[in-house]
# Entry
Amino acid sequence: MARRRASQFLAGYCCSQSHSLVRRPPLCSQEPASISAPGLPHTHGKATSMFKPPSKLYRKLNSQTSCDIMQVHYSRTYGIHQRSFTSAAINIQRSPSFSKLNSDDIGYFKSMLGDKNVVQDEDRLSAANVDWMRKYKGSSQLLLLPRNTEEVSKILHHCNSRHLAIVPQGGNTGLVGGSVPVYDEVIISLASMDQIISLDKVNGILICEAGCILENLNSFLANEGFIMPLDLGAKGSCQIGGNVSTNAGGLHFIRYGSLHGNILGLEVVLADGTVLDMLGTLRKDNTGYDLKHLFIGSEGSLGIVTKVSILTPPKLLSTNLALLACKDFLSCQKLLLEAKRELGEAISAFEFMDSDAMDMVLAHMDGARNPFPSSSYNFYVLIETTGSDESYDKAKLEAFLLRSMEGGLISDGAIAQDINQASSFWQIREKLMFRKAMCWQGMSEATVKAGAVYKYDLSLPVEKLYDIVEEMRPRLGEKAKVVGYGHLGDGNLHLNIITKQYDNNILAQIEPFVYEWTSTHRGSISAEHGLGLMKADKIHYSKSPETVQLMASIKKLLDPSGILNPYKVLPQSMLQ
Amino acid sequence: MKILVAVKRVIDYAVKVRVKPNKSGVETSNVKMSMNPFCEIALEEALRIRESGAAKEVVAVTVGPAQCADTLRTALAMGADRAVHVDAGAAPVLPLSVAKILRALVQVEQPGLLILGKQAIDDDCNQTGQMVAGLLKWPQGTFASKVVLDKEKQVATVEREVDGGLETLCLDLPAVITTDLRLNQPRYATLPNIMKAKSKVIKKVTPEELNVEIKSDLEVVQVTEPPKRKAGVIISSVDELIDKLKNEVVSCNILVSEDHD
# Structure
């Protein structure tokens, strides 16, 4: 089965080469090492599928050995699907350039951090080794909890000199396997660095350490009359350092923009332990190259973010939320256009979901209530406006919605009358994407409860956004349910394909078609989730080879030993 | 039959309430206000009774300053037919005065049923419904968790949540019912209803017009926060526990952990 998968991957890779922006020779004719597909042994000369599947296909879920291909099985007792850990699916070998941990290393860390902050306990390690989606599992033997930047610097200096690979870990809520080890990388958790350093109460500039949980920052700021410019479903667990490293988008992206605009400064520790103090608090500073942008979104592969200086917008008093029903996707698009025009700067969120998504949430989420019980609609849109005058904002939103309804753009709608109703509307949408691990509520778990999920996060032109969903449906037919939802205001679709169980035949129907389709329409194969491990070899669908080459050069410059979050973000082939 | 529903505008249930620095009350400026959750449930029940055919009209009424009109608009958007706003000025009106006003309104409107929430979440008095029933000499079914109306017999069967369990009462109409949490789940205000609500009438009345004097015998002297919870102390041995009990502790909670040495 593994052998078949490897050759399928090859075939897909060959096809994808012809779709890429620059014509490249097919894999089979000549074989410079740089085009060899990741994970295959570097047999110069011919492309081979020399992949030896492990002998035992069935392993216990808690096994510490990585890269196992465990058979997917449908557990009838629990009704949940235990997925084979995907570390194997990427077919990457552990890089021989990395050393293994030895007792001297442990001793050094213990003497520097204290025994308590050097974790080798199996239970805590197993939690840190698995990602939120329970899709990726590493086999790290060591978790470190530095308490300040200096300790992070010393750890990295040591690991760099010893060629020990590391994974920086924040809240571990990423969806592309970027926050967990692939093999035995040392996990450096920023969780202990959760101090809020200062808040400029006039300008709303917050300086805090990277391990601060987003929700805690929001509560702190709410007291002072500010809010964080980003809001995710994972806010109860995710940390600001991770948000910065993945350039998280979220629900209020349409109002407050990207972290590239809101982050005023960073303190980053480089691979060799150098501390880069770029912790400015200035809105405008045109002195030299603005390096912090390199680290925002680099997913921990260029440096570890230890402190963040972020511009926080003032907390506005009145929030209004409306859940609307539309008959087709064209109406949703027109509604977006009208909303931007008439509600203008007041819009703080514009989300959509299709009827399948709504049905799924209502079926699987406890306490979810359909605001329109009498009929079922094809699309649902959530519009939130935030302003300073409650009655004025509410009247404005009502007037806009009534006009849209008379114009036929909306078939039905409900406006939340109090905070409880607002949060129940948000639950339906928010929990589509995220929820604390182990908690089975909301769309994400709804989809997992219903079966196995393949998730894709695509940026597409708004007119084409839903076309991919409609194209996937006939491709997969009865075998799978295709559901689309996302940040319509930002042109970001979350495509979820739900099947009874994980099946490589179905996967072959989905990939690389989804990526190729996106590439053809000049979209992004990862709008906000990042590349991580899941899409580490897929960057060519959205970036030209010259761009990727330069990225690889930058990576080699900042991390010559390649110890920072290896096997992820960029294709292995580019980094050899 | 007409149903009169009394609703109250309170600080939103999900807001973290803060005491004013001068301790005269709770911070209400710049804070989100909405309809009292129990009042929403009362209104929902009235709407369901109307939809089942047992009543013709649902009238929402509120007592309070000008901003309370928002609450009435929400009530209209949920489906009430018309509304009455008794403008009693900015000062908070206490339950007995509200009860007197409701009595006067009942004598004007002549409803077959008066439904209220069991209590308001800002004062938690749980008095208005009972007082009105007393003033009107009407039967009352409070903490209703189930209401069944019999139109021909003009009787309401109310299941109440009491300390001992559930109590079922049979009330002759006209009657007063106050609603509890598990009675129903209030509907959302949908756009078609919001549109219809724009043409519905909100009648403004003052207490003087109803011949009610709002005079209160009660005055709020001070509002303070409850004392902050202190962290517990972990005691390592039984001897230490006995020593502390003898000498230091006036009242305490003792938690015994299972894995003690």
